From TrEMBL:
Organismal lineage: Bacteria, Pseudomonadati, Deferribacterota, Deferribacteres, Deferribacterales
SUPFAM superfamilies: YutG-like
Annotated InterPro entries: PgpA, PgpA-like_sf, YutG/PgpA
One annotated GO molecular function: phosphatidylglycerophosphatase activity
Protein's UniProt name: Phosphatidylglycerophosphatase
Gene that encodes it: pgpA
Keywords: Hydrolase, Membrane, Transmembrane, Transmembrane helix
């Protein structure tokens, strides 16, 4: 079970890349987006909920096992958050790219209240939740941009 949870938490070991593991972790979500492209929004949302719960469990386990607070190599949060964005944004190459860069911007910058959540909500829930907030910020920006593009 340990190896499986480690594998999930680290985005199939992508989180171990030496530089920008969160960025590479986000890229892992793209094949999931493409595979589920023609699935119903209901199924996509159920998949998101399942991935979110599994992400909480895997990241909580990893954090406790390795005694690290929000380890950089845990990238399941980026994967799940990016997938969440793409559930609600019409699929096209522009949206895929915009979502990627805007999400990475918010995930790295962590504007209010994302940083507060990261600092105050501990464990697997905290690891997952700050990225979901960054995803919500991303969704807002993309939906506003769509009004003008």
């Amino acid at each position: 079970m340990h190896k499986f949870l480690k594998w999930i938490a680290t985005g199939f070991n992508v989180g171990f890349v030496p530089n920008a593991p969160g960025t590479f972790g986000t890229l892992v979500a793209i094949p999931i987006v493409l595979i589920t492209l023609n699935f119903s929004i209901f199924f996509k949302f159920l998949l998101f909920i399942a991935m979110f719960i599994i992400g909480i469990i895997a990241s909580e386990y990893y954090q406790h096992y390795y005694e690290k607070e929000d380890p950089a190599e845990v990238v399941i949060d980026e994967i799940v958050a990016y997938y969440f964005i793409m559930i609600f944004v019409p699929y096209n190459l522009l949206n895929l790219i915009l979502a990627f860069f805007i999400f990475r911007f918010f995930d790295i910058l962590k504007p209010y209240p994302i940083k507060n959540v990261e600092n105050s909500v501990k464990g697997g829930v905290g690891i997952m939740l700050d990225d979901i907030l960054a995803a919500i910020y991303t969704l807002i920006i993309i939906l506003v941009l769509r009004l003008f593009i």
